[in-house]
């Protein structure tokens, strides 16, 4: 097999975090005198990290323009509520555990690369029982730039002492695919996550796999 390491996206790939993110967003919105948003709407706002989520949730659109005072009030409330509930309703997707075990049995080194801030990533990996699979977690605030910039993938690759051409990225959105392409890494996409409201069919991925378990089988054939 060509791969020695795998970099996993978190939200929408390993974990369904939308119920918790929606609760935190709606607690923030209620406090700021706005009506609650539906989960499927919030799902389209996820992908570029917490600040962009708060901007989109407060404007209820992909328009991220907002006054600085309102943004800082929203950020403070969102962080407070998300810390309080992070993981409560989060579910590990079907096929993730089998897939992670299969990658581990194949001897691959694994890391998480997420746009979620590190203060949420670490406790969530512990709470969902996934932490032990990964040597490192690179979060949205670990590097100077987030996905779709390749920087966090390159950083994770260095931490794992791997080469980009031997590294596989698995994600649910264009942010993952664009970052992987720019980093010179292979990338497969799962269709069940959140791609900012778009399907994954038009992404420039090497394959679309139904589950992480299927991704492990795909990797073995390369
Ligand atoms: O926090 C986000 O916006 C998305 O996080 P992800 O990179 O794990 O999908
Ligand atoms: Mg994702």
From TrEMBL:
A molecular-function term among this protein's GO annotations: metal ion binding
Binding-site residues for Mg(2+), renumbered to this chain: 9, 11, 172
InterPro entries hit by this protein: HAD-like_hydrolase_sf, HAD-like_sf, HAD-SF_hydro_IA, HAD-SF_hydro_IIIA, HAD_2, HAD_sf, PGP-like_dom2, PGPase_prok
Annotated active site: 9 (nucleophile)
EC number: 3.1.3.18
SUPFAM superfamilies xref list: HAD-like
Pathway(s) of this molecule: Organic acid metabolism; glycolate biosynthesis; glycolate from 2-phosphoglycolate: step 1/1
GO biological process, one term: reductive pentose-phosphate cycle
Known cofactor(s): Mg(2+)
Function field: Specifically catalyzes the dephosphorylation of 2-phosphoglycolate. Is involved in the dissimilation of the intracellular 2-phosphoglycolate formed during the DNA repair of 3'-phosphoglycolate ends, a major class of DNA lesions induced by oxidative stress.
Homology family: Belongs to the HAD-like hydrolase superfamily. CbbY/CbbZ/Gph/YieH family.
NCBIfam families tied to this protein: HAD-SF-IA-v1 (TIGR01549), HAD-SF-IA-v3 (TIGR01509), HAD-SF-IIIA (TIGR01662), PGP_bact (TIGR01449), PRK13222.1-2 (NF009695)
Subunit annotation: Homotrimer.
Record's protein name: Phosphoglycolate phosphatase
High-level lineage: Bacteria, Pseudomonadati, Pseudomonadota, Betaproteobacteria, Burkholderiales
């Amino acid at each position: 097999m060509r791969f020695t390491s795998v970099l996993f996206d978190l939200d929408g790939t390993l974990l369904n975090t939308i119920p918790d993110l929606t609760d935190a967003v709606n607690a923030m919105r209620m406090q700021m005198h706005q009506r609650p948003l539906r989960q499927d709407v919030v799902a389209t706002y996820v992908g570029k990290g917490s600040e962009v989520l708060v901007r989109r949730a407060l404007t209820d659109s992909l328009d991220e323009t907002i006054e600085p005072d309102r943004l800082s009030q929203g950020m403070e409330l969102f962080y407070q509520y998300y810390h309080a509930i992070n993981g409560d309703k989060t579910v590990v997707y079907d096929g993730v555990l089998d897939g992670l075990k299969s990658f581990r049995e194949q001897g691959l080194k694994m890391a998480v690369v997420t746009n979620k801030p590190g203060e949420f990533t670490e406790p969530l990996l512990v709470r969902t029982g996934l932490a032990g699979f990964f040597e490192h977690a690179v979060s949205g605030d670990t590097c100077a730039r987030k996905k779709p910039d390749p920087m966090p993938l390159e950083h994770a690759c260095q931490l794992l002492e791997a080469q980009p051409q031997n590294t596989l990225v698995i994600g649910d959105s264009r942010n993952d695919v664009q970052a992987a392409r720019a980093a010179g890494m292979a990338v497969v996409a799962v269709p069940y996550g959140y791609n900012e409201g778009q399907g994954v069919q038009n992404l420039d991925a090497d394959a679309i796999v139904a589950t992480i378990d299927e991704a492990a089988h795909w990797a073995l054939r390369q």
